[in-house]
From TrEMBL:
Family matches, as Pfam families: BPD_transp_2
Domain of life: Bacteria
Bias kind Low complexity: ranges: 15-25
Record protein name field: Xylose transport system permease protein XylH
Chain positions covered by the region annotation Disordered: 1-25
Organism: Streptodolium elevatio
Function: Part of the binding-protein-dependent transport system for D-xylose. Probably responsible for the translocation of the substrate across the membrane.
Bilayer disposition of the protein: Multi-pass membrane protein
């Protein structure tokens, strides 16, 4: 009986015909998945514009808002005072943001867990007090005193992490107690004198007073930073390609590297017009770059993002959540201690006011303004750099205009609120588009 007779002759109901003899049929698993973003990029400028709109609608803004805001801030203040973008002012700005910037780098790690550390200002103060007492009153060498101050900070972080991760006390309460307690310890260590002056031209003082005067050094540092970025991104490209995952085209990587190179060498050129590249800026950038490499390129870093994304899911994935939490608080307090060392270096003394004032708020604000989410799981150490540039630029520009400090605080608070609102809106957009 024919197919026609049995009523199965309809083309719609027939099974797919086999491929001709000799034809190679790729298995379904071998079919490459094409990232729609790559297709858009092949369309030229219109493709990039479409990709930009897709990212905005999906809440994937990244660092674009803060970079745009920084450009606007620089344009406004430069139009008000032509000294704002001068080599002298930018060099001073790079040193001014170093101490609080180092503290902000540490707070980024805690924010990635979705937690907060309110004690970083007090930790920086007590560490600076330890530094001064050991160096001046007990005759310790500069390097030994610096190491001891940082170790004190790390041990404080270990204590915070223990009560938080092991005992179960909320991080807010633990670090709030630390905010009060470590400030009291700072006053006790300093004693009745209240302020201990450090030695000029010592290693401690040179942390914020030394400049690489040779022009070639600044350009070499810029070249190293660009090379690190290019190599790490290329290795990531190769790793994803071997795993069969979508990759960014080499042309895009080359373009991004070229843009970074232009910025890095421009900064080196400007700084060389004054005294040269400040050592404080180099150390700050080193911690930013190394921190980003650890967070994004190591298993430990991925575990931090995983814990920040969801504790229970991280536990089920076999991650030692307790270890991750304790270690992150140790890193945060260690960076706060290092920031305290730089703060003491800049004013060549350690006193009762070190680590107080707006240190805590500026460090947290810098991390959030730079793009690190308060809700955990999203951000990088580059947030500390971008956020400190924003806060430092606002402060420097207003100082040049002789604006009252009260106005600076109000504007910084408004910028912080805008960053948090943007973060919240971004998260809602991601959930709506199924990306959160």
């Amino acid at each position: 009986m024919s197919d026609k007779d049995t009523g199965t002759g309809s083309t719609r109901n027939q099974p797919e015909q086999p491929e001709p003899a000799g034809a190679v049929v790729p298995p379904a698993a071998a079919v490459a998945q094409v990232d729609p973003r790559l297709v858009m990029r092949q369309q030229g400028f219109s493709g990039y514009f479409s990709e930009f709109k897709r990212r905005v609608k999906g809440g994937e803004l990244g660092s674009l808002p803060v970079i745009f805001g920084l450009i606007v801030i620089w344009i406004v203040f430069q139009s008000l005072n032509d000294r704002f973008l001068s080599a002298q002012n930018l060099s001073n700005l790079s040193i001014q943001i170093a101490s609080t910037g180092l503290i902000a780098v540490g707070i980024v790690w805690v924010l990635l867990l979705g937690e907060i550390d309110l004690s970083i200002g007090s930790v920086s103060g007590v560490s600076s007090a330890v530094l001064a007492v050991l160096n001046i009153k007990h005759g310790w060498g500069d390097v030994e005193a610096i190491i001891a101050a940082v170790v004190v900070g790390v041990l404080i972080g270990l204590l915070h992490g223990f009560f938080f991760a092991k005992i179960g006390v909320p991080a807010f309460v633990v670090t709030l107690a630390g905010l009060i307690g470590w400030q009291g310890l700072q006053l006790y260590i300093l004693g009745d004198q209240g302020t201990i002056n450090l030695r000029y031209n010592s290693t401690i003082h040179k942390l914020t007073s030394y400049y690489f005067e040779y022009v070639a050094v600044g350009y070499a540092i810029a070249g190293v930073l660009v090379a690190i970025y290019a190599v790490t991104r290329y290795l990531e490209h190769e790793r994803r390609a071997k795993a069969g995952l979508p990759v960014i085209p080499i042309q895009d990587l080359a373009l991004r590297t070229a843009i970074l190179a232009i910025i890095a060498f421009a900064v080196a050129y400007v700084l060389n017009q004054w005294y040269g590249t400040p050592l404080a800026l180099v150390i700050f950038l080193a911690f930013v770059v190394v921190g980003d490499i650890i967070l994004r390129r190591t298993r430990y870093g991925r575990q931090i993002y995983a814990v920040g994304g969801g504790i229970e899911a991280a536990r089920r994935a076999g991650i030692n959540v307790t270890f991750v939490r304790i270690s992150v608080f140790m890193i945060c307090s260690g960076m706060a201690a290092l920031g305290g060392v730089f703060a003491a270096s800049r004013i060549v003394s350690a006193g009762q006011s070190t680590g107080t004032g707006d240190v805590l708020t500026n460090a947290i604000a810098a991390a959030v303004i730079g793009g690190t989410s308060l809700f955990g799981g999203r951000g990088s150490t580059y947030s500390a750099l971008l956020g400190m540039l924003v806060i430092g630029s606002i402060s420097s520009g207003m100082d040049l205009q002789s604006v009252d400090s009260s106005v600076k605080l109000m504007i910084t608070g408004a910028v912080l609120l805008a960053a948090v609102v943007l973060d919240s809106v971004s998260r809602r957009s991601q959930k709506a588009s199924g990306r959160a």
